[in-house]
Fold this protein.
Amino acid sequence: MKSDQELKAIVRKKYAAIASQKVDVNKASCCGAGDISNEVYNIMTDDYSPVEGYQESADLGLGCGLPTEFAHIVPGDVVLDLGSGAGNDCFVARHETGQAGKVIGVDFTPEMVVKARTNAETLGFHNVEFRQGDIEDMPVNDNTIDVVVSNCVLNLLPNKNKIFSEICRVLRETGHFSISDIVLKGDLPKALKEDAEMYAGCVAGAIQKDEYLSLINKAGFHNITIQKEKPIHIPADILSSYMSAEEIKKFNTGGNGIYSITVFASKSDKKRTFKKIDQLIQQPDCEPGGGCC
């Protein structure tokens, strides 16, 4: 098993290369890593084109959800995007928070930070800032953030306990997060788990859904809610690099699954007025007003 630092090095190296890859390549693979599918054009990403504030030049096709759609950002908010890439979700968040607010993107790949800063300068967005740093040790002061968003990033890093602790640290008392990420139900085949490309591709680094929600609960968050969930189907022409046809059939029919979830949680139970409260859809098996863990 690789160490945490080895895994981070793999991800950093891969995403440095992804920064200059074509979007079509990223969409037809698992977050830009590993083999490209000839069967499925868009494996993980959601369609941003109708989203206000969307900038096509900043979309590298690396997300697995639309966390800003569910993030309840209001004008004047300070928003933090974890793993900000070329700035896609930051620019959408900027539209929501307006000129009175501020958006900070943090990414630990230098090439991504340069690309994001170039995009912001080209677009003339002066209230969007990009910082290079590790989201397990964020370059952000305590109690300064209203809303945290992240899109298909936390599963890339090994110490998820530390990440949720850091999110709690930087959020104001009335702050909250909306995070899209990859989780599992059941086990991945061993060959997928051990492949470095699939780790960088947001699959091998994913953990069980129940464990993911439990980590959020243990970090002390409130109102834990699944806002959206969708299955991720890895095409057979990619899976064939890791398993036989019989193994692929068993994997696809054995009750195992890879899912994208968008999860909301607040730092405390203090009330805050949301602009789009009707979007906060409670998970069916949650008790009203309670957590999901």
Remarks:
- The chain has a mean pLDDT of 88.
- Residues 186 and 255 are 7 Å apart (CA to CA).
- Strands lie at 78-82, 102-107, 128-132, 145-151, 171-185, 207-208, 222-232, 257-266.
- Residues 4-18 form the longest helix (15 residues).
